[in-house]
Prior knowledge:
The protein is mainly α. The chain has a domain of about 55 residues: lambda repressor-like DNA-binding domains (434 Repressor (Amino-terminal Domain), Orthogonal Bundle), CATH 1.10.260. The chain is built from 6 helices and no strands. Helix 3 crosses helix 4 and helix 5 packs across helix 6. The protein is elongated. It starts with 5 loop residues before the first helix and ends with a helix.
Amino acid sequence: MSDRDIGQEILDGIREIKRFKKGEIDLKSRILNEPSPPKAIRQKLKLSQSAFASLMGVSSRTLQDWEQGRRKPQGPAKSLLRIAEQHPEIFIEIS
């Protein structure tokens, strides 16, 4: 088990938020870029639509809709596309 004091961590977080609201500190933030189009990522990985859809946890139809512009990936799918684009070795290992 960990020696973490969750209650203290929560209180520290609340204090940090209060200091931020008062303008005393800046909080760290990151801007995430949009991933490349799914088709470009899939082709870079040299995967079929069905294999890539399976790795992404979506149906082949959903992937086709993304690739043809009928729908856009949302939420976790966008995150997985970022990972596939920025760290393709992970997807190649599990394919």
